[in-house]
Task: structure prediction
Amino acid sequence: MAEQDILLKVEHLKKYFPLNSGKLINTRRDYVHAVDDVSFEILRGETLGLVGESGCGKSTTGRAILQLYKPTSGRIIFEGRDIVSLPPEEMRAMRQKMQIVFQDPYASLNPRMNVSEIIGEPLENFNVLPRNEIRERVLEILDMVGLDRSFANRYPHEFSGGQRQRIGIARALALDPSFIVCDEPISALDVSIQAQVLNLMVELKQRLNLTYLFIAHDLDMVRHVSDRIAVMYLGSVVEIGPSDELYTNPKHPYTRALLSAVPKPDPKSERKRERVILEGDVPSAIHPPSGCRFRTRCPQAMDRCAVAKPDFFNVGPDHRAACFLYK
Amino acid sequence: MSVVLDIKNLETRFSTREGYVYAVNGATLQVKRGETLGIVGESGCGKSVTMMSVLGLVPTPPGEIIGGQAFFKGNNLLKYSAADLRAIRGKEIGFIFQDPMTSFNPVLTIGRQLTEPLMEHSRCSAREAREKALEMLNLVGIPNPKVRLKEYPHQFSGGMRQRAMIAMALICDPDLLIADEPTTALDVTIQAQIVELVNRLKSSFDMSIIWITHDLGVIAGMADRVAVMYGGMVVEEALVDDLYEEPLHPYTRGLLDSLPKEGTREPLKAIKGAPIIIREKPAGCPFEHRCGSAKPVCREKVPRLTEKSGSHRVACWLYDHA
Result:
């Protein structure tokens, strides 16, 4: 990977959320280890899928990258600059280039602003266009996301989930960003609408040369839209590789269990299928297991897995897994 | 093979400030003894309201059942009194809801809630009920059941709560289990555990199951027969293999076509438009405005659920002649 092709580099990112122990004088603090030493790169123009189940830290990672949460430690290098240590004014300028689409189309739009105001707000905040040109830009963006121009004066409650999500996407596009964190953008939509919105996001990415971090839990959808995929478990990335390669040759035991759990719309193959069924539940993120976080549920756990957290080992072309099975 | 539940032309509507909402518009389906019927549909299609109507769980007002019948073991539940329905719910028909956090009482222990159906429906002593509850918790794979009985719902994880809900639904050995989106709120690996559990329990409890979901993958692995609902009616119904191999209704085809296919990055084939809320009694096919094959008759007459071949039924003017 040539250095100049890397748009975003995440280095040893950690985000711990402190918990109060409930006493008046806190002598000891517990932390939720939401993101626990995560590193990866995203190339300009690619879509990196980030998958994992609830509590794995994928959403927190996405938000920490955008500095919506201040990282506990680690570096986030965007277009060559470490944005964690940027002074506020410079970070603010950076924000034009990094945007987010949220999961819940019912919670992420201000109900008291109309569509034009919602999409125009970023343009006003950053003074990128003279006032009289903002309206025209808003209408152009509405065209781009497939919404009728007449919707500009309407309010969020007048729209369906799918339309609201298009409004959220329009808002993210307003400042002409280079990078968008898509935080479960289709999970809250009906099945027949998911395909529409996903197609739109893919088309926009190609047209506008965007780079996506696509966070989701629907593995089939993520595969369809991503060039590479990173799998997270309890705050760590356990495997990363090209989408098709990861799906056809999963190496980490968790990735295998995850993929085997996904039901396929094919009754004959479902009947024959042998699944890896994991026992029990995900352990606590407050007191995660020592060493490899997955060892308590791993069908192939060894003694050494409790001693140290595994590094990444190469398991295929551009494909790495954090597992001692591959040392 | 005997039919355990036979719903005929059920119609339910709700009164709202803006007028009526027609949630169920002539739903017809049957569940046979020992089979799993999957009901597939998106939000607003009427799948949950259909089951709630049958069990007397629709608040009236604002809801109102305006037509149809629902025969359970030969008796029309829609004519039952509230007391008679209470006697059946939890005993002969078990129900699992989507969100186990909101369907358990947060201020009562799991043990208390698990034994409640037994205390209500049978002549168990408290000690016998407790023994049975322990047995059920073991059966659904919850470790340390003695400790767990004394705990509260918030102390359980999502997957465990759903297992406890299954235990509660099955404790009186019902003939029919209705599961309304039981795994939608769960992670995929936990979903796999729950599906495997229910399939295992189905044979040991010798019961019929209705499994309601929007997930075409889960249904493929669970159901013997599948009914697809849209706009408050059943638009297609078939044996599971037939539905996936030879979907007839344009909506079913649209749903299956819109799923990502392995090995291709072509744009997904989306269904145009979106589901709408039905505010007037439907005069024609509810899917007409999104259908690529719509004809004039589709707007004028409601299609009838007719048998196309064997046990494959479809409600569509492409296959029926007015």
